[in-house]
Amino acid sequence: MCRRAGLQDDGIREPLLAFGQNPPWAYTVRVSFETTLPMETTKADCPDVRRRAAESLLNHLPEPDVVAWTDGAAQGGTRQGGAGVVLQFGDEERKWCIAAGEFTSSFAAECHALAEMLGGLLSLLQDDVVPLAREVRVCTDSLAALKALEAGPTAQRHPICQTIWRRLEACAAPDRHFTLVWVPGHAGLRGNELADDQARRGGLMEQQETPIGLLPAVAAIKAAAKAAARERYLEAMDPAHHHRLATGGKTLQRVGRFSAAELVALRRFRVNGHTSCRATLARWDKVDEATGVPITPDCPHCPGETQDAAHVLCRCSRWTDERTLHLGPNPSLNVLQDNCEAVVEYLRAIGLLAPVMAP
Length: 359
Ligand SMILES: [Zn+2]
Description:
The protein is of the alpha/beta class. It is built from 13 helices and eight strands. It starts with 29 loop residues before the first strand and ends in a 10-residue tail after the last helix.
């Protein structure tokens, strides 16, 4: 799997953690972490909602003299890392980017961006370019990076996180305070968008030849294993193979009212991804095995209709009798929530549920 992930056998070398450089009491930098928004949001919320939640948090934080936005990017979460920085102070706005490793992880790329920003800020402070830096606000969209850093300078398990804490300390001054803020990514926050753009540019820059650290190696191996499993699944896509993947080959147990197979079918229909629907097969670029022709999403029984889960369940003319019997005359998709038993009976009647286990 290492070779599949593009890693040479001897290419992985994790730098030793530099313990003992600074004991915990030697850190003087004052840092606060803000990792929750005032309103709960999820990635599924539209960007406007998430942007407003972030803005309402930012409006309640201390007025900053310096605002930094950082972002990291990695192709597929494993390759061609880039780190982007936007630094705003006085009337100035500076943007730059660096490469963050041929092999990297999203987490490592985000951390490289934070470390790079602090390095840049330190030189600007030393050169007296930044007139005032009592309150420094750092915005990142990496919750994982902030949660890791929040554990404190001596609890860091990765060299890049240690670097961040050392650079924070190097920037310390008696009247200086850092607020590290998590903001949602891709929510239309201008600074975050600019940093994101820089990070992507950074990913296009020439990468240095460095030994591959543990984080990027793990990310690359995970991604390769996932791709291999998916490839095998899509290649075979027979019930036996799915059964092995889903159950580890163990005998199916009845879960509550439904068997495992029935639950899988119900869930697939709920997410509109059942393999009996041509729409699903077309989305997966499947080919008709008999003719070699790519499968189209059209229902062979109903001209002009897409054969997706809703069609099979609620409308398809092929199974009107079975549907009327089990689901009534004009069922809606609500039956998937309200009457799962009837759905299971219907799916069995139209041959989508093989009797995989004894009752
Ligand atoms: Zn149909």
